[in-house]
Design goal:
With 88 residues, the protein is an alpha+beta fold. 30% of the residues lie in helices and 14% in strands. A two-stranded parallel ribbon has the order 1-2. The protein has a two-stranded antiparallel sheet with strand order 3-4.
Length: 88
């Protein structure tokens, strides 16, 4: 997703400036707490921001599971294989 950068609003800026309902991942990893506060205050229409949890099946459950080949395992509270597969 393209970020706000210089003079270009990108997808993030366009979403914040729109009247459309917009989600934001509030986990302190994907988006900093300060940016969540800024995005919420900057909305063109109030009460159109919804919070998204990026929880995976390992939360309170298995420490390893098969989602993408060759599988994913929990390391330091994160699933690094999922990030690598999603980026490719």
């Amino acid at each position: 997703m393209s970020p706000i950068q210089g003079c270009e609003p990108g997808v993030v800026g366009a979403a914040i400036d729109s009247a459309a309902p917009t989600g934001i991942i509030c986990d302190g990893i994907h988006v900093a707490d300060e940016m969540i506060a800024l995005a919420t205050r900057a909305r063109a229409v109030p009460d159109r921001m919804f919070l998204v949890l990026d929880a995976k099946p390992t939360l309170g459950g298995l420490e390893q599971f098969e989602l993408y080949s060759p599988g994913s395992s929990l390391r330091e509270g994160r699933l690094p294989e999922l990030w690598a597969n999603a980026a490719s």
